[in-house]
Amino acid sequence: MEFSNPTIDAEINRQQLAERIARASTPKMASSTHRHLLAQRLRRIADAVDS
């Protein structure tokens, strides 16, 4: 048997909607930025290995 409370359901829906809005409103990072950050990390690792 499933328990359902309209107040709790409404709060859960409100929270899920707020999370979706927060995710949608965050600016997307360009793929070139991702590649640049990855290249920086790889260079640091390579420098650490060479040292």
Q: C-alpha Rg, in Å?
A: 22 Å
Q: Order of SSEs, N→C?
A: HH
> How many β-strand runs?
0
Percentage of residues assigned to helices: over 70%
> Tell me about the biggest sheet?
none
Strand composition percent: under 5%
Structural class: mainly alpha
Low-confidence stretches: none
User: What form results from the Cα inertia axes?
Assistant: elongated
Distance between the termini: 63 Å
- Average pLDDT confidence is 87
Q: How many helical elements? A: 2
List descriptors.
2 helices, 51 residues, 78% helix, mainly alpha
What does the model show?
This protein has 51 residues and is mainly alpha-helical. Helices cover 78% and strands 0% of the residues. It has two helices and no strands. It has helices at residues 6-25, 31-50. It starts with 5 loop residues before the first helix and ends with a helix.
Topology:
Layout (H helix, E strand, L loop, with lengths): L5 H20 L5 H20 L1
